[in-house]
User: Fold this.
Amino acid sequence: MEFNSNTRLLVVAAHPDDEVLGCGGTLAKAVHHGATVAVIFLGEGISARFPHGQYDSEEFRTQSAIRMEGAKMALNYLKIQDVSFNTERKSCQFDTLPIIGITKEIEYHLERFKPTILLTHNPSEVSVDHRITYQAVEAACRPTRDFVPKEIYTFEIVCSGGWTFDSTFKPNTYVDITPFWENKLHAWHLYKGEDRPFPFPRSDTGLETLSQYRGMASGLQKAEAFRLVRKVV
Ligand SMILES: [Zn+2]
Assistant:
């Protein structure tokens, strides 16, 4: 995964915070090397914490606003301006919607942004939204279509990928994020109220442990791990 001023990097994420958890260090690195970066969020991220269907409360609106504010602050901090939100899709409910609608939305952004590299979820995740996002990207990136990126990678979300019964995520690409670790951690901290004490995976220690674990596999101090799922040369 190489970054320069010709790189157009698109992140297709299910929820605000997935971009920082999955590839925040990589995004900081890409921007540092002159890449143009866009992030699309296919759904919102907090409704699963409320009773199903009960989203008309002050508490819901407050938490939604906090999450949205966190995403804007984190991406602004990472110097990423091209951000698309879709708060209509409720989290952990992508399986109740026709996948064609999600695929079409991704296709729209492929044509609009014309990415050279795409990063998205891997299919071995507890989150049904992450799994469906992967499927929709796979459909949107049919190789006969225009504007399909030449390089497509999947990333992992700690506490979704880490909690599967039988993970099949096998990374084969490691990005050295050692110089950008503090950027990732700072961006994460801008998502208020999302961390909990270790051993919860989205704690500071949990995130650092994963980066070091992936670093051990790649001879790096800290790494983000990806699986290259297609590259056309
Ligand atoms: Zn997510």
Notes: The first strand starts at residue 8 and ends at 13.
